[in-house]
């Protein structure tokens, strides 16, 4: 073994042992030379070798970093869901609200949280943008913009669509107070009480609540954590059940993390067009991809104005600013009108602040950093799950977003697990939150977007042992 | 006549002739001495006399100002409405949206606007509060506050209730993105599709839109521009029709401006308690009273948690900040839960800004100034209406808020008038906007909260002549 091979091998072992974690910086060339008494050329060769093996990456002008890559993936991915597709009236139980309240506790380890660690947001830059925007804001804007909202922001959003190859009209954009009101208004625009709406199984609990509030029936369609909703099943449902709309997350679905491939999105849009069923596309995680290229939205394949694309800055930039929108296709006028008698509009100062932030540049480089960070975060959490969770656990490996979905060995009850973990100051999101029928009782969603630390690792160890504790001890696991 | 009586008489005539308008400052003592060659004592005596007559008022350390008091009130007040109380499904016509869009035009004279002139808001102070609040804001607030929203703001709101003698629990306050979402969520909490809801006739058009959106039937109850809804009629409706809720504006009703007397509010609350019907109380204008004492809310008489009191800072401080709330009595938990799946919450920065503004003091003195300004503004607009509108016109004289309601001589069509005025760059709010059945076709609402100027006066003259033009010329008016 040459000197550089030996150094590379040592580093590789150190990475495998977790001495260097994903996102960690390797010693600089100079440091390595000093530490090992070797030449810069030797260090370079060792680093090149590790880079070729995919273990580390070079960041221009800043050094070498450990890549996100679990060392041992002994657990399988979760199986696709198999919901009954009969429409169901939803009755959200108190439990969901109790759980939601507990997910936001700051103390403890918020692995059930819907948000990433707020320290990942550029809060100082945003504050500066807010101050600058307020200095420039015309007093009349508070009257003239109620609604439609801040025009500069609309233009910035249109520019971002254009960068993704989508040329939309300004009139198509309806600004809202985060993505949730956008989704809700889109739903109101296309479905009336008693109608059925197709959702994924499992699905984001807010979709369930929105359907309940509007007296709509849910048709749950099988969805897997790889490529999303089952188009075959969906086609059957469209044929037989004539739903008023579909509400889907095409990119990094919450809670599964699934990513619908481009071709599948194209087919989805064609299928819906054939049945003239509108799509409410919840795309709040689309910017948080791990690959080199942004995944397209289903909207980008739409030629009939049937897709209402809903997104926000809440997952990427500033949850508290409450700025979201929908590009609502042929329903934009209707959605804007519905907004008039509910929201009126979002807060003008925060809209103006985000417009200023986008104008001044820096959002894209923030996003690049954030994507890399979240990818590293995910790898290290997935790694820990593979290391600590008992045999028979299945875990998803999303290509973006910040959630992973765990299917626990069958006897384990996720809600019991939730309470047991809560008692130890750890939150998790139990599966039944994400189902109209309270299914997924042995599944949990974990947030991978909390800054990795000994405390987070300990929390994962604790959850894993709570899982093991719930499993029958005498007989071997059925998996 | 003494010297001071003669001077007072001259001033009184000048005020009657409109040379001094409500809110105008009279010459200082020194100026008056110089102008008339009289002694300070003479000027003082003249001013005391005018003050005793109620024509002017002294403002400590700043001089004497002309009081709001129309000189010639030749027009009568509008008659109470007489709606059919059969429930009606609402079908808001496109017209309402077209009209609403046009009301916000900055160019021209926005006498149809729902907002006061933005220069009346303390925008600089608010901006400073926003900057200060952002400097102090804990990054975690953007996670922890989603929902319930900014706690400091909740406490400030509770303090204001306490100042009005109402001790509410923090858990009763649900922060929303302006009052409109609060009203809408309260409606959702107590009424399901197909239910009937009592509203005033005429009523705020957003109530009509909200009812339509939720597939609710409207029961319109007679309301006059003096004391509000007809309790006798309401009692009949409660007896016979079992509505799911009442949605009323107890203080300075929009569009009538009526103020329900304290005793009537007490009776209203008792009547609703007897029938166990919840009240959604829209009280966004309550702070804009002209008298010496704030009118109480119906909520203040509620002992059963049946009143959901909705208010905001949009009419008094900052429409664009979108900060409102409801004190939702026994329905607070339900409303907070509904909020979770729609709004989540309002923007945290603007909530924190208003909390800071309130903490630092100055809101009450701003309100005192604003009340005085709006009272003066109203007097001068009412004055102009009395002067220029044709015989047979009736006009309300609200004790607060910033709208007046005009009943025009019968053949006049308010929607036609709206279009004719629009063509001249003047907006008005035509009566049919405020009715489920498109009634009040000969009524208009005028905004008195735009800075008085020659341009505004000209606009009123133009509307008056458009009205006269629509009236039959050959025969005398039937009124």
What does the model show?
- 2 copies of one chain form a homodimer.
- With 479 residues, chain A is an alpha/beta fold.
- Chain A has 3 domains: 3-66, Winged helix-like DNA-binding domain superfamily/Winged helix DNA-binding domain (Arc Repressor Mutant, subunit A); 92-99 and 103-116 and 368-470, Alpha-Beta Complex (Aspartate Aminotransferase, domain 1); 121-363, Aspartate Aminotransferase, domain 2, CATH 3.40.640.
- In chain A, 41% of the residues lie in helices and 14% in strands.
- Chain A is built from 16 helices and 17 strands.
- In chain A, strand 7 and strand 8 form a beta hairpin.
- In chain A, helix 14 packs across helix 16.
- Chain A is globular, with a radius of gyration of 24 Å.
- The model of chain A has no long low-confidence stretch (mean pLDDT 89).
- The interface between A and B is large, with 59 and 60 residues.
Mean pLDDT of chain A: 89
Distance between the termini of chain A: 43 Å
Q: How much beta of chain A, percentage-wise?
A: 5-15%
Q: How many H/I helical runs of chain A? A: 16
Summarize the main sheet of chain A: 9 strands, mixed
Supply the CATH architecture of the largest domain in chain A.
3-Layer(aba) Sandwich
Portion in helices of chain A:
40-55%
CATH superfamily of the largest domain in chain A: Type I PLP-dependent aspartate aminotransferase-like (Major domain)
Identify low-pLDDT runs of chain A. Answer: none
Number of domains of chain A: 3
Interface with most residues: A-B, 59 and 60 residues
Oligomer: homodimer
CATH class of the largest domain in chain A: Alpha Beta
What's the β-strand tally of chain A?
17
User: Which word captures the global form of chain A?
Assistant: globular
- Helix/sheet category of chain A: alpha/beta
- CA radius of gyration of chain A is 24 Å
Q: Assign the CATH topology of the largest domain in chain A.
A: Aspartate Aminotransferase, domain 2
């Amino acid at each position: 073994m040459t000197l550089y091979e030996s150094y590379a091998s040592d580093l590789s072992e150190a990475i495998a042992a977790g001495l260097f974690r994903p996102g960690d910086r390797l010693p600089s060339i100079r440091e390595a030379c000093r530490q090992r008494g070797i030449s810069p050329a030797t260090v370079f060769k060792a680093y090149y070798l590790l880079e070729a093996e995919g273990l580390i990456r070079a960041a221009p002008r800043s050094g070498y970093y450990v890549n996100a890559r679990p060392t041992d993936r002994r657990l399988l991915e979760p199986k696709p869901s198999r919901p009954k597709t009969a429409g169901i009236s939803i009755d959200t139980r108190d439990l969901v609200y109790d759980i939601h309240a507990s997910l936001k506790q700051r103390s403890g380890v918020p692995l059930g949280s819907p948000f990433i660690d707020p320290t990942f947001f550029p809060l100082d830059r945003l504050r500066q943008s807010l101050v600058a925007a307020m200095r420039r804001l015309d007093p009349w804007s508070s009257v003239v913009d109620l609604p439609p909202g801040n025009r500069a922001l609309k233009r910035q959003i249109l520019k971002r669509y254009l960068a993704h190859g989508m040329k939309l009209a300004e009139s198509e954009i309806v600004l809202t107070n985060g993505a949730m009101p956008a989704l809700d208004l889109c739903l109101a625009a296309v479905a009336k009480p008693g109608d059925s709406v197709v959702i994924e199984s499992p699905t984001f609990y807010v979709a369930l609540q929105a359907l309940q509030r509007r007296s709509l029936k849910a048709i749950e369609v099988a969805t897997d954590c790889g490529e999303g909703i089952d188009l075959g099943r969906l086609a059957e449902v469209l044929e037989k059940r004539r739903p008023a709309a579909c509400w889907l997350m095409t990119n990094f679905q919450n809670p599964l993390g699934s990513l619908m491939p481009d071709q599948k999105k194209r087919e989805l849009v064609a299928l819906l067009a054939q049945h003239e069923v509108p799509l409410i596309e919840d795309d709040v995680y689309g910017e948080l991809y791990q690959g080199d290229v942004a995944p397209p939205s289903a909207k980008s394949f739409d030629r009939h104005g049937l897709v209402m694309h809903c997104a926000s800055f809440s997952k990427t930039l500033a949850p508290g600013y409450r700025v979201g929108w929908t590009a609502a296709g042929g329903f934009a006028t209707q959605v804007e009108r519905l907004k008039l008698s509910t929201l009126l509009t979002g807060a003008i100062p925060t809209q103006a602040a985000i417009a200023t932030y986008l104008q001044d540049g820096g959002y894209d480089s923030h996003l690049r950093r954030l994507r890399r960070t979240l990818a590293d975060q995910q790898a290290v959490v997935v790694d820990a799950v593979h290391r600590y969770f008992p045999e028979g656990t299945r875990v998803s490996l999303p290509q973006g977003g910040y959630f992973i979905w765990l299917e626990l060995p069958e006897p384990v009850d996720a809600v019991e697990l939730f309470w047991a973990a809560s008692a130890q100051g750890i939150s998790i999101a139990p599966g039944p939150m994400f189902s109209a029928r309270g299914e997924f009782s042995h599944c949990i969603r974990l947030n991978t977007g909390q800054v990795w630390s000994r405390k987070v690792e300990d929390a994962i160890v604790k959850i894993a042992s709570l899982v093991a504790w719930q499993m029958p001890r005498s007989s071997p696991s059925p998996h």
